Each structure stands twice: as structure tokens, then as C-alpha cells.
Amino acid sequence: MPERNSGILLHITSLPGKEGIGTLGKNAMEWIDFLQETKQRLWQILPLGPVNVGNCPYQCFSAFAGNPLLIDLQLLVNEGLLEDTDLAAIPKYDIRQVEFSKVTSWKTEKLKKAFTYFREKDHPAMLQEYDRFLSEHSWWLSDFALFMAIRQDFPGKSWTSWPEELKRRNAEALSQIREKHSMEVDYQTFLQFLFFRQWNSLKNYANSKNVHIIGDIPLYVAGDSADVWANPHLFLLDDQLQAAKVSGVPPDYFSTTGQLWGTPVFNWENLKQQEYHWWLARIHFNLKMFDQVRIDHFRGLEAFWSVPAGEKTAERGEWVEARGTEMLEILRNQLGSIPLIAEDLGTITPEVERMRDRFNMPGMKVLQFGFSTDQTNEHLPHNFTANSVVYTGTHDNDTVWAWLHAAGSTEKKLAQEYLKNYHPRPVWGMIEMAWASVASTAIIPLQDLLELGAESRMNIPGIAEGNWGWRFRWDQIKNKHKVFLKEITVKYNRS
Asked: How many other C-beta atoms can be found within 10 angstroms of the C-beta atom of residue 2?
């Protein structure tokens, strides 16, 4: 039987703090202390990459790089990379929402100043760390830093609009522009050094408190990314290196036109020829960063919905077989066991279930989905298997409080009937239902523990702007929340 445990879903950007966005510093450590105090052993986060337009962590400039906005500036002061005076006049930020453009403008100025201090002052121990970091990460970092540097010459443009010699990575052209932008390349490299230095310190702190971190791998990568620019042969692109086919999901109960994500799909034949090296490197990289990893849109490793580029909706696509089973077999031979969580939501076929079960990967159950049909619904606890991760909702769902208030009469009646056996407060009843279930792992968004409404929702799928900004405040967490969480964790053998 899998070990029983529990935890909370909270992205780092949602942490409190003076810098306008959650960071890898003091508040992150205090959050880990809260998890330990309430006997939670898991902290699930969203992808940590540098975000593109819309601030979506699932659309990043790199599948490997970290988001510089998460670097904690106070830690840089402590290490002599900034002065106290540099943080003396922090802008007044909204404490409930991340103001991304405002944060980016102010923080970039301070990070550039830290880079100047690093270059001009004596930091011998840090320099040794920096050199070691470069040697360990050059296999992805070199392309990423150059990609970000070149973007300075073409603001707001995708790499597919760059001059041909840069777009097609002519060796002489890349050498010239690397020399031209050597300072910017070094700056981008330095930012990644700071990010991973702070991240590794935070993860070590979490593990010392017996808290394990669950990371998240988006199945696809953004078209405008260093990954596609550096590895065009691994994606289905046309002669102009534009996406020939793009990703999405077909029409279903939730959408009559499907979802068109627009990212390039993988060329699985070419991936097979290189023995899935890029995918395997990506998973190994994430398993080094995190204790466990969720694969978003897991079903795309078995077969993916491929839509011709230029379509306005996802209706005119087709299912194309992927080679995820072959790739995962190699991974299992390398690791022995695979510490991955399969995001198997939506329309899942028997083939996808067989692939998930073949590698003993837990799937996901979402209680909010459990009351839309009848007692046979797979998201109701009496239908769970132990090798599952149950959520009250995910980052894509509304909060439980908002969902319960907006549910139709039949759905609400079924939920109330089920909830009467649990905590009298309905949102906490849903949480207790998750903790009481046979699922080995139970995870809730912090918003549900705090019984927050729709204003605290993290993401509304299909809406490009206004998402990903929610932040909590320490004064929202009361003693009653700690007592409740600790009590149910002990009661249901998850501590």
C-alpha cells in the first residue's frame, strides 16, 4: 500500500512579501514552517520558468530556466550583492494580487545592480560556485542566455521573426551576436545562477523539515522559447520554422470548439531517433529540482490532438500516436521507479490508463468533478484507488466556496448529500472528504483551507489576461485553520 500523506498547492508567486510577488526567501521558509507545524508533508507548486505574455507559468521562454522575478532581493543584500539602501524605497504593491509589469520594472533594475556588484566586487567563494554552476548547466543555459540576449534586439517579436541567419542558427552569426551581447549573455547566466542557488537552499530547508516539494512539467513548451529555437527538429515545424501543427484538445462537454493551446507539437519520430534524450533530460532535471513531479496533460504522451496551424478553434484536429511508453520505459530502466504524477483529467482512453498503470503512476481525482453525474463518477471517493492523488480543486478550478455557490441544483444536492457525513462547514467538509478517502495523497489549494471565494481563483482556462496573480496574507491564516488541518491529518493517518 502506498504511504498516506497530504499537503497544499500554493505557487511561489502567491506568497506574501514586500517585493510585490512571492519569492524564494524568508516567507517561503515560513510557509514551510507552517506546513511542518500542521503536519503536512507535501508542497505542490506550479512551473517555475520565466513567463511570457500573460504571465502563465505553462508558457515559458525555457523548459529549464527559472523565473528571475522569484529571486529574493533581501537575500542578495545579506550576501553583499545589494546594499540596504537599494531596498529602502520599495514601491507600494498590491498585497492581494501580483502586479507583474510593475514588479518586473522595479526588480529588473535591482537585479542588474546586483550583477554589477558581482562583477566589480570581490566574491571569491561565490565565483567558485558560479563557475561550477556554469559547467553543470551549460548544456541548456548557453542557448537560453543567448536566446534572451538576442530578444533585446527584437522586442516583442518571436524568434521566428528574427533574421534568417539567427533564426536558423548560423554558426558565424551566433558567434558574432554572442560577442556583441556578451554582457547581456553573462547577465542572463548570472540570473539563473541566483535563482538556482536560492531554490536549492529552499528545497534543502524544506527537506530538513520533512516537507517534500511536488513540481510540475507542462507537456508542451511555448513556441517562442529557447527550447524550440535550439531544437527545431524535435517539433513539427514547416520550412519557415513556424509550427505546422499545434496543440489542444478536441470539443467535449466543457467546450463545443475544444481548446486551442497553439504550442508546437512534438516530432516523436525524431525524438525516437535521438533516444528521447531531450525528454529524458527534462525529466531528470526536474526530478533533481523537486522530490516528485506532476506531468501536465499526461495523456499527450500516449496520443495528442494535432491541429493544423492557422485554425481558429481546435475542432479540425486529429489524434496522433505519441511514443511516451517507449520514453518512460527508458526512464524506468534508468531510475528503477518513476516518481511522477499523471495529470489524467479530461477524456481518458483505456490506452492512457494502461500506460499510467504500467509505470505505477498515481492519477488525479478532483472532488469538484464528482457530483456532475451519478454515484459511478470516478471522482467520488468511494470509486478511488489507493494509488491516486485527490484534490478538492486544482489551479484551473474555481475555489470550492465559489463552486458550491455556483453549482446547479442537482449537482449541489448531490454534494450536500455526500457532505453531511463530514465537517459541518461545507468547504472544510470537502477537505475532510479528501483526507478521509483511500487515495494515498490528498492535496488542497490554500484558498480552500481559507474558505475563499472566486476573487481568489488562480486561473480561468481560455482567458489570456488577469490570471496567476493571487496572493495570500499571513493574517488570513488563523489558529482555527492550523488546528483543523492538524486534526484531520492525524485522524486520517496522513501525518
From this structure: 13
Q: Can you say how many angstroms the Cα of residue 177 is from the centroid of all Cα atoms in its chain?
A: 32
Residues 6+ apart with CB under 8 A from 174: 146, 166
Q: d(Cα 319, Cα 317) in Å, to the nearest integer?
A: 7
Question: What predicted TM-score, i.e. pTM, was given to this entire model?
Answer: 0.97
Cell, residue 494: 496522513
Which are the catalytic amino acids? 296, 343, 396
Average pLDDT of the segment spanning 261-269: 97
CA 71 to chain centre: 16
CA distance 28 to 25: 6
Cell 512571492, located at residue = 22
Residue-range domains of the chain with CATH = 5-216+267-302+322-491 (3.20.20.80)
- In whole angstroms, what is the distance from residue 149 CA to residue 168 CA? 16
C-alpha cell, 88:
529602502
- pLDDT tens digits along 267-280: 999 999 999 999 99
| DSSP H helical ranges for 345-438 | 350-358, 400-406, 409-419, 426-436
DSSP result, 446-491: HHHHTT--GGG----TT--SS-S-B---GGG--HHHHHHHHHHHHH
Per-residue pLDDT tens for 349-358? Answer: 999 999 999 9
**Under 8 Å CB-to-CB from 368, ≥6 apart: which residues?**
379, 392, 393, 397, 398, 400, 403
The Cβ of residue 240 has, within 10 Å, a number of other Cβ atoms equal to 9
Q: What is the pLDDT of residues 366-410, one digit of tens each?
A: 999 999 999 999 999 999 999 999 999 999 999 999 999 999 999
